[in-house]
Predict the structure.
Amino acid sequence: MALKVGAAKKDITAYEIGKGMMGYGMHFQKVEGVSEALSVRAFAFESGGERFVWVNAEICFYTLALKDAIGKKLLTDYP
């Protein structure tokens, strides 16, 4: 039985000058630019007809709606 493995990384850096910085520094500090890019990484494994996908995003939090949307997209694109 063969093990298939895949990996991907995508830049998800998004910012808008003047927005608050969600927990970084004081509440009055505003975004001036990007010092570190943010990424999302995914690792997929398949063996014996079973699949497992691990996704890690460099963000403070994500909603259940976002989690569900990602799961549905994966199931649609990779049935």
